[in-house]
Amino acid sequence: MGRWDELAALARRQHLVVSVEQATQLGIPPRTVNEQHHERGWRRVHAGVYALAAAPDTFPLRASAALLSSGERSLLSGSTAAWCWGLRRRPPGRVEIITPEDRRVRAREFVDVRRSATLSHADVAVIDGLRVTSAPRTLVDVAARVSPAQLADLVVMAFRLGVVDDGKIQAQLNRMGPVRGKRALLRILADLPRDETDSAFERAVRAWLRRRGYQPDVVQVTLIDRGRVIGKVDVPFSRERVGIACDGRWTHLLPSAQRRDRAKDNAAAAMGWVLLHLLQDEFDAGGDAFLADLDRILRQRRQLVSRP
Fold first, then answer.
1. Whole-prediction pTM
2. Which domains does the chain have, with CATH numbers?
3. Mean pLDDT per segment of 10 residues, for the chain of length 308 residues?
4. 20 to 30 Å CA-CA from 40: which of 95, 133, 153, 159?
5. How is the beta sheet containing 242-247 ordered, strand by strand?
6. What is the C-alpha separation between 230 and 289, in angstroms, rounded?
């Protein structure tokens, strides 16, 4: 494999972008990269950062390019990190970066940069190859920058996905000391609903999905439309707005239950959700056909939410 092929392979592992610094490490002089990128169809994203030919302008590409242009100690943060963790459905309009206080990084097109004196190794996580602030750090960082209702939505989603708990958030606050938004965050934690009730069938489905490599939410989701409770999603994938209704052998065969399910499915669809029904007998038989449908729909929804 030639050096340019190695560089392209590296770019494919980091959302189709690569830096001149990385090219230099592979033995390609910076001047050569800057001169030949036009010939190869690569486009300049930031100074010293290029996207491969025909690479679509996705938000993960922008985020990866922002990290490459900001240095190894930079992290995606704020609303960008919240999207990476699955706490918000759509990516923000701009990429947010946080760096240690002793490092100066200029803001660039579609990129906002903040410096922090409290950034530590405990704040670093990696999601899909992108360096991001940890989930507790992300919540603390956004606490003073969003409305109480928006913060509550982010916190509830983080608990549903199982990426934080009370202890992790409190430990994060203790490490950072006095921060803006702390009182609002603690108030939301105190009022947070702790409803994690589900059936043995639902618990079995959730464990089955995890064994097969899927990451559903750890608790049910209640759908509420304009103050009206639509119903609960038994096994939700909140980021993609895909849910699984676990239908027992007998209950959901009743005409009244079928009518209720249709009404719930239609109301959920109007809110942007897709509900799939998994029968107990289908689950007991292995559920391969159901998993194929689930995988296809999750892929489709992830493509939608990744668009800028």
1. 0.64
2. 3-51 (no CATH), 59-191 (no CATH), 200-305 (3.40.960)
3. 80 86 84 77 83 87 90 92 88 91 72 90 91 96 89 83 88 92 89 62 90 89 76 89 83 62 89 92 91 94 69
4. 95
5. 235-237, 242-247, 274-279
6. 28
